[in-house]
Amino acid sequence: MVKLQLKICGIFAVAFLSCLCAAGTTQSQTGGEREFGPVVRAYLGYLRNEQEVVDDRVSRREISAAYYRRNSNRIRALRQMAMQIARQSRNDYLPEFEAVTRDEMGMLFEQAPRVETLRINEVLKNTFRFLGSVRSGEVFYIFARLDPYEQMELAGAGGSNPSGGGSVASPSSNPANTLTRARRASP
Description:
- By secondary structure, this protein is α+β, with helices and mostly antiparallel strands.
- It contains 4 helices and 5 strands.
- Helix 2 runs antiparallel to helix 3.
């Protein structure tokens, strides 16, 4: 009788620990997001949804394994950069991000810049600000698309460089320092 009770307790303990592990995984994905405001949390939720779409498509064999890997890595790189910027700026604002590999630079630029010469906060074509690179399976170069007001400000200041290179908008090496918007109100 005692052995049966111990066996049942052991089964319940294993089941309970399994539930805790599953809850911990979900908690680790969303629990760390509580430090962010609603805009940043919404963006991180969007990235989770994008990952679910990619996961679904690969499970249906609609995409290749290589396509799946690259897009999953891209989503991780975007998530990492978004969280880094939100933490550094302590601001509930994120720019529109573009994450490309070296061979995808032509998707953003007619004449792709040499990645070796990119500097953090460098503005290219009055359209993109280079935020940095993130290694997530492969190296992704992360850019923030400038909003129309930033583009007008740069054009008025003569910050344009038609060759595809750019001017450095700020001497700071902290991308969050250049991303300014109204701060969210503290609860």
